[in-house]
Amino acid sequence: MCGHQVPKWVGRCPDCGEWGSIEEGAPAVAAGAGPASVAPRSPAVPITQIDANAAGATPTGIAEFDRVLGRGVVPGSVILLAGEPGVGKSTLLLETVKHWARAGRTALYVTGEESAGQVRLRAERTDAVHENVYLAAETDLATILGHVEQVRPTLLIVDSVQTVVATGTDGVSGGVTQIRAVTTALVSLAKSSGVAVVLVGHVTKDGNVAGPRSLEHLVDVVLAFEGDRHTSLRLIRGIKNRFGPSDEVGCFEQRSDGIHEVADPSGIFVHQREGPVPGSVNLVAMDGRRALVGEIQALTHQTEANMPRRAVSGLDLARVSMMLAVAGKNGFFKSFNQEVYVSTVGGMKVTEPAADLAIFLALLSSHRNAPVVPGTIAIGEVGLTGEVRRVSSTARRVAEAKRLGFTHVLIPSGTDEQMPGGIRVTQVADLSEASRAATMHVAADPAPF
């Protein structure tokens, strides 16, 4: 054996040429090849000796924003706020720094997408001009770090992270390498100095945060700012939160003078009218931990077209189609010759199965031209055989309905949660019981199928 090593077995040694001399064995580990230990700068201490108040949250002054963050901004944390262009991210952050400055704290707003004059004009419109708010239009990371050393703020806003360039790092602005380098440097700044950093991020056409997936792992909090251009409602949804729940939702309304929080958004999703009308049913949907009362409106119209139209807004088209199939199978009404239009009020989006019962009752009410009993809420998932199934957080939904003045609620049979008092609760096992409990008396029989 000549001692020559090969990565796999061979019949003949390529070094000495001898046959059958190669033997299998583990590679020898050189002495001292492992990582050497380094003395820590500070010794590890028992967790009982750690001061929990050191990571206490500081309220921003905006209750809905604090609700999603988990009581406020934690010093040294990094928050990523992502949303579509024009949804109001910059306006919300200007509102945040306004309250931050009025509390006697210093905030530094760094803009890389607009000039300082443009931000000043928006700040005047939203009354966010304050001497404790510092403004800088920069895209170079090193210069931004220099501004932080000079101003020494307690809150740093970077709008946006895709426009900042780290000198010495390969890649173009907004690329994967640049975003990772910029975010890593800002995270290191936050942890070493204790300044809270808020990064504004872009989204892709699919609604996901633009950039590498590691960007969401580096930061402490990831928030999604959602909104429809055709409505004034804006929602902040928690995606990741190391300091609080990740399923909270904050509601805001975009106005000409800025963005305002909406403490009770249920009024936006419920239409106020003098009397009951056919095809309108109220429901309570859960958006994260928040119970929202909404309204579903349905319209069915007989047509002679070979392919009747189906139009759905704010709901899942598949669940509406399923309710039509269940209604036809269980003998309530046939929809093969009916145009069907179903929509939510106020731009509300509901995709959870708990809206099934409200969708069915709205369709049935419109077809029979019989309004639902005033003050009624419908909650429940509908199975393919017509049974009404239980849903989560029923008691919280009923409590929200009671708070808004509703007097009657339909819930699935077998719900074992303790319901609040002061509101009539009817448990229904199937669609037949639900239709009898919800719809008003019909003076004339509906048209034959």
In words, what does this structure look like?
This protein is an alpha/beta fold and 449 residues long. The protein folds into two domains: 207 residues, Rossmann fold; 171 residues, Ribosomal Protein S5, domain 2. The chain has ten helices and 18 strands. The strands form four sheets. A nine-stranded mixed sheet has the order 3-2-4-5-1-6-7-8-9, sandwiched between helices. The protein has a four-stranded mixed sheet with strand order 10-11-13-12. The protein has a three-stranded parallel sheet with strand order 14-17-18, sandwiched between helices. Helix 7 links the parallel strand 12 and strand 13. The N and C termini lie far apart (93 Å). The C terminus is likely disordered. Keywords: ATP-binding, DNA damage, DNA repair, DNA-binding, Hydrolase, Metal-binding, Nucleotide-binding, Stress response, Zinc, Zinc-finger. One of its GO terms (molecular function) is ATP binding. Belongs to the RecA family. RadA subfamily. One of its GO terms (biological process) is recombinational repair.
Strand content: 15-25%
Question: Which shape, going by the Cα principal axes?
Answer: globular
Unreliable segments of 5+ consecutive residues: 441-449
Number of helices: 10
The CATH architecture of the largest domain comes to 3-Layer(aba) Sandwich
